[in-house]
C-alpha cells in the first residue's frame, strides 16, 4: 500500500517566492530521477494552501484539458516575479490619502482580480486535476470556509477558481473582504484563510482522514480514509524570521498600536503551533513513519518580512533565500523526492 502524499503551502504574500524556489528544485529532481515531463501535481494526492499558498496550489493543479496538470512550478515563480509588483504596488496618491492602510485597505484589489481572471478564466474548482484544500474565513457566519475540489465534484460546493484565489488572498488591512458566489448561487463573504490557518497542514491532515483515496483514484494502491501512518506530509513555509516586539513598545500600545503586531503575531503563532502538533503526532509513530513529516521553512536571510515588499532587490533577496536553503539541504530534499517517486501511482 502506498502512502497518501500531501503538500501544504503557507501564506505570506510575495514571500511565496521562497516556496516556489524550493518546489522548483523538487520538480527538477523528479524530472531527472523519474520522468522528463514530471510536474509536481503528478506526485501529490492532495495540495493544500492558504493565501499565497492557495494561489500556488491552484496553479499547480490547473488542468491541461486532458486530465493532467498544465503548469510546472516555474509558471508560479514567473507570475510572482513579473506580476507581483503590479499586484502589490500602491500609487503615490493612495499612499498620501491612505497612509499605511489606516483608513482603507492598503492595496487596491483591482490588479489582483484582473490577473486572477486573466490566468484562471472560467476554470471551476471541480476541474482541478487532484484534490485540493484552500482556506478562507466566512465573516458573516463566523466559521472556516474550506474549498475542496473533491467535494466540489460530489455536491453543490463548486466555485470559480479565480474567486477562491481572491477569497484566500483577502488579508485584512491589505485587501478588502470579498463576496463570491458558488456555481449554484450561494453567496459567501470571505477573508484570508491565514487568519486561522496560515499553515494549513493540520487542516489538510483532517480533510485527508475522511477521503476515500482508493475510490478517488480508482486504485488499490492507495488507502481509503488514511490514518497518520498512511501519510507523507510536506509543509512549506514562506520564511522563518519573526519580528521581535519589545515589552515597552506594546505596554501601552492601545488598539491602533496593536493593529500591525497582532496580525503578524497571529500569523506566525498559528503556523508554529500547527508544526508542533504535527511533529508530536508523527513522533508517536514507529521509527520509519516518524520521518514522513517534513517542515520546510527557510531563513529569510536579507529579505524583508513584509508580505507586500515587491521592490526588485527584495524579490531577488527572496529568491536567494530559497536558493540558499536548497543548497544547504539537498540531501534531505533528495530523500523527499525519492519518497514521492515511490508513492506515485
Automatic annotation (TrEMBL):
The reply on keyword Lipid metabolism is yes
User: Which residues participate directly in catalysis?
Assistant: 51, 192
Annotated ranges, domain PNPLA: 7-205
The short motif DGA/G is annotated over 192-194
What the entry lists under InterPro entries is as follows: Acyl_Trfase/lysoPLipase, PNPLA_dom
By its UniProt entry, which Pfam families does this protein fall under?
A: Patatin
**BP-aspect Gene Ontology terms:** lipid catabolic process
Transmembrane region positions?
none
State the family it belongs to.
Belongs to the patatin family.
- Protein name, UniProt field: Patatin
Which species is this record about?
Chryseobacterium koreense CCUG 49689
